[in-house]
Every structure is written in structure tokens, then in C-alpha cells.
Amino acid sequence: MKRQLTLIALIFALCSTLSACRQNNGEFRSNTIITAVSADFDYLNPLLIQLSLSREVCTLIYPSLVKPTYDEKTGNIAFSPSAATSWEFSPDGKNVSFHLKKGIRWEDGTPLSSHDFKYSYSLYANPATASSRQDYLNDLLLKENGTPDIQRAVETPDSLTLVLHFNRALSASIVLDHFNDLMPVAKHVMEQFKPEEIRSRATEIPIVGAGPFKVSQWARQDKLVLETSPTSTLPYPAKTRSLIFVVVPEYTTRLAMLKSGQIDALISAGGINPIDTRELAQNSPDIQIRPVKDRYFDSIVWLNIDGEKWRSEKKVVPNPLFGDPAVRRAMTLAIDRQSIIDGFMGPEHATIVNTSLSPAYRSIANTSLDPYNYNPQKATTLLARAGWTPGADGILQKNGERFSFELAAPVGNPRRNYAATIIQQNLRQIGIDCRLRFEENLVFLKNQNEFRYEAALSGLAAETLPFQLIIWGSDFQNRTFNSSAFQNAELDSIIGKLSGPLAEKDALRLWQSYQRILHDRQPRTFLYYYDELEGFSRRVENTDINLLATLYNAYDWTLGKEP
Fold it and tell me: What are the Solute-binding protein family domain coordinates in residue numbering (predicted)?
């Protein structure tokens, strides 16, 4: 209750901090959409972002070359103009020219130009920046040492023309997806900071965008205030004066705030718990629930390498517990995933998977693979073959080492908290000591990136096929999303081939092999793709919630009158 009262006071305090709110609270609530999220954003600089919601917010602040749209019927993604009005690919798939829209300006009035893109690509490619999207640039022309040659590969014939040259033929969808994700930063701002300082001095770097919103205030672990950017032409200034994200770690508090009208939306970290949907439908008719299907999956990331050896010596040594794929398969068999679904989400809101591929892509699904149904007896047999047998205390042991580890998970996520408890119980039944550790979201993410865990209950928004191609890669140091440090040469080759232009039958064959490798090696125990149920007040109008993003068209959101 104390926390809730504090948040109520915060909302009224927000009113006083915004110039638009000085008249009265009624005017403030008619022009401001307040959203509750479970955790703060990692960064609001596209060079550094890793969290999916941070990326979504950045698309509202920074320019993007194109605007993706998802066709639910075909499962395909199309691209329409945004900062680029048009583009042409060369017949050999090795070059593309983008023509930028005239009159785009950064919010400080400086014109956006092709030079901003080129400079930004040099920062994305620079190892000192440590961008999670650094690998995208490896498709450009390369220097003799194998690093991207930005000077040769990115041409700027004039301020409105951007030409990219690749070292191999690429499919148009890969180029548009990847380079659209490489949102540019303002060259005149970023030139003031050395690449090796960008991450350490992130809080000092001004957030200067050109999108429909601009950042008015960001109080870490508290709130983010976006205001409409009156000069934006990408596509136009946001229709709502302010969009506020309030950080509320406790789910029950977030839900109570939505019910009482203190907030207008509850998104991220699973959104609305499925168990609460019936009560909301009966008692809160002013709340609508918008499902995001087939976008998010949960998994247990098994660290494939010895994290300490890697951090101290940069040596790849198999993890003593999870370096063996037979052990990882056993872990998947030992976990009752259907029980987690039935107990928390309900079978209509989740689909068990055994790879990272979304169920949305039914046409390429490899249906011949073992479903890994819950089978603790088979799991025990696999572990025994790998040398893990019961010790005196009932816990499995091998060469004097107990099968004991911590499973890390983020706080504020009831779905993962529930899953962690079931997983702990399942593993205890076969003689594995699994201890739970819940961490603040940014700490949890940092520990994953530095391989400071044995296992982590984590997930991804992995909605597009091009994104599937950057999750994995044996060069895990530069593949931030490969937090299991999984290495497989055959998968590397398949990913490389899938990035190029292919006949449909060849692409299908490669996608089937992609799934087989992940299924057989189980770098993660893939739990399920689940529906994220976003909660909105019915006052929030014009929302387009889809596979690509919850904030997909947040610049079009408006508030209707109080019911």
C-alpha cells in the first residue's frame, strides 16, 4: 500500500514537472498516456540497447530507414518508406542505394544526412562500442584483417544518398531488416565522445532524436517521460502530448493501478497474468487486453562454457555441468513444461517449442523432431550415461562434484518466478540441487553478458527470421544474444547461407537443419512461446499491437474521454 501511495504521488508530481500540465490534472490526463513497466530501460542509445522494450522506445525517438509491417496471413514482413523514401538493389545482391527523405531534422534543428548513417555504422562496427548489433556490419566490404571497411563499404555521394557495398550477395529482406535496426545517432553529438567512452559515459550523452517523440525526462529506476517532438517528419509529431513509463516492479501494484485508472497501460514482463483475465473481464469492463502472439519465448540458458575460465583467460573450456549436450537434453526432458503452461498461462496462451523459431513460421517448421515430452526417467538414464549418479545425500555427483547450481531469474516477472519454482521442483526429483536467485533486471542482464551464471531463466523477442540469424554464432563474444556461448560450425555455415538470396526449397532445407541442430544440442532448454497480454484502458485509442512491437504505432495513440 505504501508503494502504491508513493506512485500515486509520483503521478501527480509528474503533472507539475510538465509544462503542459500547469493548468490542471484533468488536462494532464487528457494529453498524457501513463504506462507501467516492471523494470527500467537499459539504455536509450541505439548503439547500446539490448532489451527489446528499450529498442521499441528507441524506434519512437530515432530515425529508421524503413517501416516494417507484418502480414499475419502469410507470416511475411514487408517494408515501406520512413527516413528512406526509396531504395534499389543491384542485380547481384551486393549493393543497395537508399534515398533519404528531404527535410528531416534532428530535434535540435540540425539536418539529418547520409553522413549521420555512415558515422553511426562506424560506431556500431567498432569493438570499443560493444554494440549487440555489431555483427550486422560484417556483411559489408571487409578490410584485410576481416573487420568492416566502413570507408569503402559506405558511400555518401550527397547528403541524401546512402550506398552500401557488401562482401557477398544478400537477400533484400536481410539487408532491410538489419540496417533498419541500426538506427543512426546524430554525428554532431556523438563526435564529442570517444567510442571507448560511449558505454561508460552513456548517462552524459544527450539523447537527440528525430522521431515522433523526444525525451523530456529520464529518472533511472523511476520514470521515463517522452513528449511529442513538434518538428518530426518521421512520420509526424506524436498525437499525444506525453507518453510516460513508470517503473513499478511489483505486478500486483501495476495491476491495481490499471484497475483504478492511475495508469492507462500495463505492458512488458508478461503484461497481464492470464489467471487475472477472467476477473478483469467480469469486473473491469473499461480494461481491454491485447495479446501479442508468437513473439516472445522463455528458456533456460545453460552456460555451455566455463565462465570463469573465459573471463580470466579467454579460454573456451566446457562447463563442468552443462558443457555436455546429452546433459542439456536430459534437463529438457526433466522439466514439465506443460505443467508450467497449465498452471500459469493456460494451454491457449502458450506453445511448447524446442528451438528458438517462432510457431508463427509454420511453413518451415521441422515437424520430424522429438518433442522432448516430460520424461524424468529418460532424463535420469541420460545423466547416468554421462556419469552422473546419486551421491550419499541423494544429489547426483560425478568425480566428487555435486550437480548443484543457481538458476538466475529477473525480479518482477510472475511468469518466470512461477516457472522457476516448478523447474526447481522437477530437478530436485531427479537428484539435482537447483537454487533460485532473483536479480534486478539490469544486473541480471549484465551477469548474462559477462557469463557470470551457470543457468538463467531468460527469454527473447524473436519475431523475425532475420533476427533468428543473429541469436546464434560461434563468435559468441560478438553475438550478445548467444548468452549460452554455444558454438557449432555447421550452424554458422547455415546462418551464412540463409542470409543470402536462395530458392524457396533451398531455404526450407536450411531452416529445417537450423532447427535440427538447436533441437539436438539444446544450448537452451526452450520452454515455450507465450502470448504477452498487454492491458490497456479503453480510453487509449488507435493502438496497433502486433508481432513486431507493442509500441509499434505509439505515436498514433490518443486518449478518449473518461467513461
Answer: 79-465
